[in-house]
Specification:
This protein is of the alpha+beta class and about 170 residues long. Helices cover about 35% and strands about 35% of the residues. It has a single domain (about 5-165), classed as Thiol Ester Dehydrase, Chain A, CATH 3.10.129. It is built from 5 helices and 8 strands, in the order H-H-H-E-E-H-E-E-E-H-E-E-E. A 6-stranded antiparallel β-sheet has the order 1-2-5-6-7-4. The protein has a two-stranded antiparallel sheet with strand order 3-8. A hairpin with a 5-residue loop joins strand 6 and strand 7 (about 150-160). The longest helix has 20 residues, at about 65-85. The termini are close together. About 30% of the residues are buried.
Length: about 170
């Protein structure tokens, strides 16, 4: 169950206006590419990216970097949601990325990640400054016809910064 801090974060991130403002401020290319976070809770995270002129490659499909950006957001959102449960200064970064492409992305692509529980569990295991843990999150990309287009695996590393308190709700 999400606490009040997590619910506030979730509401803010899902607000279309606040999402666009965040992209404009921190991730402008996501705004230009049309990436959107559609759903976020303790069960799933869903992002989408349209097929349009700006996003396409010479092979008439969505450029893999645009797909990777939307895929990353679908795993970053549950990581951020889980971090909002922790009262500690935690650094996090992607340390590995793997992708399997199975079909051309030639329509709106939707990414679904169901790994909030992995993030929540991993962060709860961090106890002392300097502790680190990694989580590999999977997100599945499907086209407008619900056909699988790709599967992405992002490995996130989390570390409690020195001098940080760590209390979990």
């Amino acid at each position: 169950m999400l606490n009040s801090q997590q619910n506030k974060f979730r509401r803010n991130f899902l607000s279309p206006f606040k999402q666009k403002f965040y992209y404009l401020k921190s991730l402008p290319i996501a705004l230009f590419c049309g990436i959107k976070l559609l759903a976020l809770d303790e069960h799933l995270s869903v992002t989408t990216v349209p097929f349009r002129w700006l996003n396409k490659n010479p092979f008439n499909s969505i450029y893999f970097a645009v797909l990777s950006m939307a895929a990353e957001l679908s795993t970053a959102a549950p990581a951020l949601l889980a971090l909002n449960k922790v009262d500690a200064d935690i650094a996090f970064i992607i340390i590995d990325l793997k992708a399997e492409f199975t079909k051309k992305a030639q329509s709106r692509i939707t990414f679904t990640c169901n790994d909030y529980g992995k993030f929540n569990e991993a962060l709860a295991s961090l106890k002392q400054p300097g502790d680190t843990i990694t989580v590999t999150a999977e997100t599945v990309a499907k086209d407008a016809d619900n056909n699988e287009v790709a599967v992405f695996y992002f490995t996130w590393s989390f570390k409690i910064r020195q001098g940080s308190l760590n209390t979990f709700s």
